[in-house]
From TrEMBL:
Protein name per the record: NitT/TauT family transport system substrate-binding protein
Signal peptide: 1-24
Record bears the keyword tRNA-binding: no
Phylogenetic placement of the source organism: Bacteria, Bacillati, Bacillota, Bacilli, Bacillales
One Pfam family, short name: NMT1_2
Organism superkingdom: Bacteria
Length: 329
């Protein structure tokens, strides 16, 4: 009896020791995302398909709801990595940061918003916006800057040709439009598709298609973190690249199925519709490399909107070492 008990205890101790060793090998990363969106599908695929686990990573995801809050979390060491628009790193650098925020892996490479009309329009032309009320995004944010850039590219002066509303909080824009504010609204998915399904509005154009490629949402971290945790960052980037390739190769239904647990309140057909839209217009980057042309386009858009504090060299705030290493590019 005593021999049996000793053997059982020894087995338990062995299991506990092995478990502790495995846990010790797992590296934890605190990731802050600017919002929770189907636009970020490859990230959620990396989680659902176990790509982070394969790299020995335990990613703790927190939604910080806003670029300013996301950057505050990163700068105050509340998170290790942030998923947010690259413009935020430019704002921080322009203020004279001693520990620059570096973009090291790109997730999306187009704007993710759509122009939604209150009325159904068969053959939409941008000039139809003249004289209307346009419910835009927050001033200084990437969606609003891209929105104004696209309007100007299509011969619309946002300040003169229409009534531009941009004092509504991001979270309240859909409800403001639903309650009757604006003839047109700039919306992210899945809200745009939900409105279309309900008959509340109709998608007539894509800002992502019109604006061209930009580093719209990237993974970034403080330079000190990248230097001190290079192996961890490389593993993180490798997992993201695996997910990007997975999204590239799989059909819409498989992608929707993989990310559905992240959006329990969104109907499956809406998730599929949104994934298809973003995939078709090339919003999901196929590799994590942020190239120089995209960086230049970003600053041109910011400059056009009057929100560029200073031109920052590509090499100053972009590190492609990890992305090129894991993708072999």
């Amino acid at each position: 009896m005593k021999k049996w008990l000793f053997t059982a205890l020894l087995s338990c101790m062995l299991v506990i020791t092995l478990s502790a060793c495995n846990q010790a090998k797992t590296e934890k990363i605190r990731l802050a995302e600017v919002t929770h969106s189907i636009f970020y599908a490859p990230l959620y695929v990396a989680m659902s398909e176990g790509f982070f686990e394969e790299e020995g990573l335990d990613v703790e995801l927190t939604t910080t709801w806003g670029g300013d809050k996301t950057m505050t979390s990163l700068l105050s060491d509340g998170s290790d990595i942030a998923l947010v628009g690259s413009e935020t790193s430019i704002y921080v650098e322009a203020q004279g940061s001693s520990d620059p925020v570096i973009n090291f892996a790109q997730l999306t490479e187009t704007d993710g918003t759509f122009l939604v009309s209150r009325d159904e329009i068969d053959n939409f032309e941008w000039e139809q916006l003249k004289g209307t009320t346009f419910l835009g995004q927050r001033k200084g944010g990437m969606p609003q800057m891209v929105g104004e850039y696209v309007l100007k590219q299509n011969g619309i002066d946002p300040k003169q040709d229409l009534e531009l509303i941009q004092n509504v909080d991001f979270a309240n824009i859909p409800s403001a439009f639903a309650s009757g504010t604006g003839d047109y609204v700039q919306l992210f998915e899945p809200q745009a598709s939900i409105f279309e399904k309900e008959g509340t509005g109709h998608i007539v154009a894509s800002f992502g298609t019109e604006s061209g490629k930009v580093p719209y949402t990237t993974f970034m971290s403080k330079q000190s973190y990248l230097q001190e945790n290079a192996d961890t960052v490389k593993k993180f980037t490798a997992a993201i690249y695996k997910a990007q390739q997975w999204v590239k190769e799989k059909d819409v239904k498989e992608i929707a199925e993989a990310i559905a647990p992240q959006f329990e309140d969104t109907e499956k057909d809406i998730i599929e519709t949104v994934v298809e839209r973003y995939k078709n217009q090339g919003s999901y980057a196929e590799n994590p490399i942020l190239d120089k042309e995209e960086w230049t386009n970003l600053q041109d858009i910011m400059d056009e909107a009057g929100e560029l504090p200073a031109r920052i060299d590509y090499e100053t705030l972009v590190n492609t070492e990890f992305a090129k290493d894991v993708s072999g590019k």
